[in-house]
Amino acid sequence: MAGRWYLTGYSGGISRAFQSCQVVERSVGYHHAINERVTGRFGPFPFSFNRRYEAQNARGVYRRFADYPLLGIVKVTTVVLDVVRDWWNGYQAVIEYACLVALGGFRFQEVRVLTRDREISPSTLDLVDSILRQSGLEVRVTPLDHMRCPRTDRGPGWE
Fold first, then answer.
1. Are 10 and 85 in contact (CB under 8 A)?
2. Which candidate, 5, 68, 93, 109, has a CA 20 to 30 Å from the CA of 138?
């Protein structure tokens, strides 16, 4: 079940772009998308995931997320975080990912920080770097356009 896990948090549109993007590698047996803004649900899993719940109970959410044996997440090698212009979403994604790593003791080989902008703010990069390097992770910034993903979204996050 080797492969890459793409955590494209908080924008269903970006998730859909990944689903139609040829450069995305999927592992067999689980989904990679988080479609909270479109469906109000956390991927295909049977529990709700909304902003208020997410902000107040991030550790609980990710503990439940990590408990799903179907994910085979221990064998995952790559995580992509969507750092968006909305500072709340971007920072929260990084912070909660750090919680996920801490809770599960997962070991990823690298982390790619995905952004829609060709330039990402130094303060955001510093935050990403400082949090993720605590887990010994390599950080790579990959602008969305460089991944050749079609812009299929018409919802929040692409304005």
1. no
2. 68
Q: How far apart are alpha carbons 33 and 70 in whole angstroms?
A: 14
C-alpha atoms less than 13 angstroms from C-alpha of 42 in its C-beta half-sphere: 17
Listed by start position, the domains of the chain span: 12-147
From first to last of its 159 residues, the chain has per-residue pLDDT tens of 223 333 333 333 333 333 332 222 222 222 233 323 333 333 333 223 333 333 333 333 333 333 333 233 332 333 444 443 334 444 444 444 444 443 344 444 444 454 444 445 556 556 555 655 554 544 444 444 333 333 333 333 332
Instruction: Report in angstroms the alpha-carbon separations of 150 from 20, 89, 121, 145.
Output: 7, 22, 24, 8
Query: What is the pTM (predicted TM-score) of this model?
Result: 0.28
> Alpha carbon of 32 to those of 6, 9, 148: distances in Å?
5, 10, 18
